[in-house]
Automatic annotation (TrEMBL):
<comment type="function">
    <text>Catalyses the transfer of galactose onto proteins or lipids.</text>
</comment>
<dbReference type="GO" id="GO:0005975">
    <property type="term" value="P:carbohydrate metabolic process"/>
</dbReference>
<comment type="pathway">
    <text>Protein modification; protein glycosylation.</text>
</comment>
<dbReference type="InterPro" id="IPR027791">
    <property type="entry name" value="Galactosyl_T_C"/>
</dbReference>
<dbReference type="GO" id="GO:0005794">
    <property type="term" value="C:Golgi apparatus"/>
</dbReference>
<keyword id="KW-0812">Transmembrane</keyword>
<keyword id="KW-0328">Glycosyltransferase</keyword>
<dbReference type="GO" id="GO:0006688">
    <property type="term" value="P:glycosphingolipid biosynthetic process"/>
</dbReference>
<dbReference type="Pfam" id="PF13733">
    <property type="entry name" value="Glyco_transf_7N"/>
</dbReference>
<keyword id="KW-0325">Glycoprotein</keyword>
<keyword id="KW-1133">Transmembrane helix</keyword>
<comment type="similarity">
    <text>Belongs to the glycosyltransferase 7 family.</text>
</comment>
<feature type="domain" description="Galactosyltransferase C-terminal">
    <location>
        <begin position="245"/>
        <end position="318"/>
    </location>
</feature>
<dbReference type="GO" id="GO:0016020">
    <property type="term" value="C:membrane"/>
</dbReference>
<keyword id="KW-0472">Membrane</keyword>
<keyword id="KW-0735">Signal-anchor</keyword>
<dbReference type="GO" id="GO:0008378">
    <property type="term" value="F:galactosyltransferase activity"/>
</dbReference>
Length: 381
């Protein structure tokens, strides 16, 4: 009797163990199948997954691995505590993670463009909140998006210098994201924010954006874009060509006419190779004015432009920012720019990286610029 019960209990134990093993195997296979089947088509699940990835990157950033590297050998790096914005480890979120090599290339002329038949808000009081902006742009992740049904011709980074222009940035994002999606671009938008009390240096922020965006996204094409310029026509394609392109040729402030023929400010596009070939922007233009004309002198002229009926922009009205008064030395700096361009630019960047934050609709990259040291190195102080 005892021997029979022992054999019975042994069979039940073996059966139970086998059942448990089978259960866990089936559970793993079903979970794996569901995740592969439904996650790519579910924005809400993808957004939750992104937040987990961002959280992991933020935790890793407490070791300051991101602050330990810069692309420019002359860039200085801060070892102080980062700001309230979390810092991401470089390459922690790959922008091309969902690209399928089985898709064909996107057409040269995107089929879903609207021309000028879309709304452009210029009233800062009507700018959406950050939450409203994110909710209105569910297709945007990590500062941009990419086509679902074709492979974009270029990877495009939009670099926006920024300080104390929160409402203007939100209005710009409200216009840019839907337009760039219609243009079937693989793109990311980077707001390069200058912190601290030194005078604003728009040109150096462009250089910094070029360096830092390259760590995250590895673009082929860069759009250097003012925060207060809103495109009005989506046939103004934000891609790069064989020549540098001046995108914002017709601005409402100037009656949609060129104030002078060689103007190259506002918004322009250059490939990575073109930008490196001219050593980027000058770093010595602190305060307002001069850096665009200096940059034009570096670029092979004439640059290309779309027709004036397409290259149209509205400018958001605003008062000049504090710490951005006209630079009294700008004319002298422009005149001497040809002599120093090889030593003044990407090759001589100096800045401290404060923090990087993925806010879904834009990447914030916050930096401090040591004005006195930059001018001293350039023998201007």
């Amino acid at each position: 009797m005892t021997s029979w019960l022992g054999r019975l209990m042994s069979r039940r134990i073996r059966f139970g163990i086998a059942a448990l093993v089978l259960y866990f195997c089936l559970h793993f296979l079903i979970s794996r199948t569901l995740s592969l089947t439904f996650w790519p088509s579910s924005p809400s699940l993808l957004r939750k997954f992104d937040q987990v990835i961002v959280g992991m990157a933020t935790n890793k950033a407490t070791n300051k691995t991101y602050l330990a590297t810069t692309v420019s050998p002359l860039a200085t790096v801060s070892n102080s505590s980062p700001s309230t914005m979390p810092t991401l480890a470089p390459g922690s979120i790959r922008a091309s993670g969902l690209v399928s090599s089985n898709l064909s290339s996107c057409p040269e002329d995107p089929p879903g463009l609207l021309g000028d038949k879309f709304t452009v808000l210029t009233d800062s009081s009507k700018a959406p909140s950050w939450l409203e902006l994110e909710q209105s742009l569910p297709f945007v992740r990590h500062g941009g998006c990419q086509p679902d049904d074709c492979v974009a011709k270029q990877r495009v980074a939009i670099i926006v210098p920024y300080r104390n222009r929160d409402a203007h940035l939100r209005l710009l994002l409200l216009v840019l994201h839907p337009m760039l999606r219609r243009q079937q671009l693989n793109y990311r938008i980077f707001a390069i924010e200058q912190s601290g009390t030194t005078r604003f240096n728009r040109a150096m922020l462009f250089n910094i954006g070029f360096v830092e965006a390259g760590k995250i996204f590895q673009p082929d094409c860069f759009i250097f874009h003012d925060v207060d310029l809103l495109p009005e026509h989506d046939h103004n394609i934000y891609r790069c060509g064989s020549k540098p392109r001046h995108l914002s040729a017709a601005i409402d402030k100037f009656g949609y006419k060129l104030p002078y023929e060689t103007i190259f400010g506002g918004a322009c596009s250059l490939t990575s190779e073109q930008f490196r070939a001219v050593n980027g922007f000058s770093n010595v233009f602190f305060g307002w004015g001069g850096e665009d004309d200096d940059f034009r002198n570096r670029v092979a002229w004439p640059a290309s432009r779309y027709p004036m009926s397409i290259a149209r922009y509205k400018m958001i009205k605003h008062n000049r920012d504090t710490k951005n008064d006209p630079n009294p030395q700008r004319v002298n700096l422009i005149n001497k720019g040809r002599k120093r361009w090889k030593e003044d630019g990407l090759s001589s960047l100096q800045y401290s990286l404060v923090g990087v934050q993925d806010r879904h609709v834009v990447y914030f990259i916050t930096v401090e610029i040591p004005e006195a040291e930059v001018l001293r190195r350039a023998h201007l102080s």
